[in-house]
Specification:
By secondary structure, the protein is mostly helical. The protein has one domain: MFS general substrate transporter like domains (Growth Hormone, Chain: A), CATH 1.20.1250.20. The protein has 20 helices and four strands. The protein has helices spanning about 25-55, 65-85, 90-95, 95-115, 125-135, 135-140, 140-150, 155-185, 210-215, 220-230, 240-245, 250-280, 285-290, 300, 315-335, 335-355, 365-400, 405-415, 420-430, 435-455, and strands at about 10, 10-15, 195-200, 205-210. A two-stranded antiparallel sheet has the order 1-2. Strands 3-4 form a two-stranded antiparallel ribbon. The two termini are about 35 Å apart.
Amino acid sequence: MTTKTAPTRGEWLESWDPENEETWDKPLAWRTLWITTFCLTLAFIAWFLPSAIIPKLNPLGYEFSKGQLYWMAAMPGLAAGLMRLIWMVLPPIMGTRKMVSLTTLLLIASTLGWGVRVQSPTAPYWELMVLAFLAGIGGGAFSGFMPSTSYFFPKRMQGTALGLQAGIGNFGVSLVQLLTPYLIGLSFLAVIGGSQLMTMPGQQPVEVWYQNAAFVWIPLMIIGAILAWTMLKSVPIKANIRQQFDIFNNQDTWWMTLLYIMTFGTFSGLSAQFGLLMANLYGIGNAEIVQGAGSSAQLLVDGYAVPDVVKYVFLGPLVGAGARVLFSPLTDRMGGARWTLVSGIGLIASIAYTIPALVPDTSSAEALQGGFNRFLWGMLAIFLFSGIGNASTFKQMPMIFERRRAGGVIGWTAAIAAFGPFLFGVGLTIMSPTLFYLIGIAWAVMCVGITWMRYARPNAPKPG
């Protein structure tokens, strides 16, 4: 048995056609998937590192308002959306190798900055906003990495391949949020800088080394860039920027954009704001309300009412990313449109279930506990159905469009949906969580209608 090796001209492959089983270099395709997925995971870590740090800035000594913190947490989403509009056109121009290598190196800038600035509460607000914006480079990478990976696989496998890459990459969100509370307690990792005192309401100050949450990822980013530069190739799909804009003449580009806003926009938006929202409703943001509720309420402050949100915040992204990985093979077998329909209906139900818990009942410990339980389970259900939709929409796009346009549409829809953290941050700043969630239900209802009429019903115009 011989192993097929794709002919190359330098870093560029020649006569690459993954639909031709006789010549398709399968090992190269899977090597590309795993290396780019490793780098994409690091990109998501860099993108969502601020979401693991921002809720703790005030306990570390900063004095920012809730509005300032929401805006800061929203900034990586704004940057990612803007940067994805750039990264979406890079695969045909730069090729996979250069794009992945250089992008992974760029992740170091914001990661290093956060590691420096958490060590002393002296940074001005504008500087932290700049660091939050630079973190969006990690989000921008998605719109370049995913289309370039799609070039390496036949259509019949793209649901699985893209689902694995996006899903494992999305694990970077929960990974940084899960490991942060453990990393900051390990003094031996703090080879640069000293310790800080973190003070939570009703608790004794705790010595932490918060720079670990950032610095530990930098060596891995360097390794990822080296792997990409030495082991990746590029597919010769050539198109200049103007030629790539032909995707906007197709109505399905716009329909799929709306659907991906429902799925990935929800996932990314809630991933960025989950910790702050939980803290403001049931954690440190609610402590003063509970303290003022009477003598018995003090027990709530010392016990339940101020949970450490980092113990829960990673669960949402973990569920969403896991759903994307697990449901991707099902979309290859059953088609993506059916699961997009399931995603939309599930989001409607889970958002509706969560809404009553967005106004905490502070009358007793039991009421507050019940509200928190409903909030947590409702949010996890939202993450689950958004993850299912993330998998199914990425199966639909390669089926609806030819290869080069499918790559462009994947990049474009990902770019627009990456504004999720920004839009969620703005929405939760200018309106109540209840009203914002009601708008989410209306959006999901609209998307269910689009999915049924265009893609999922019998004899649909574009089944996928």
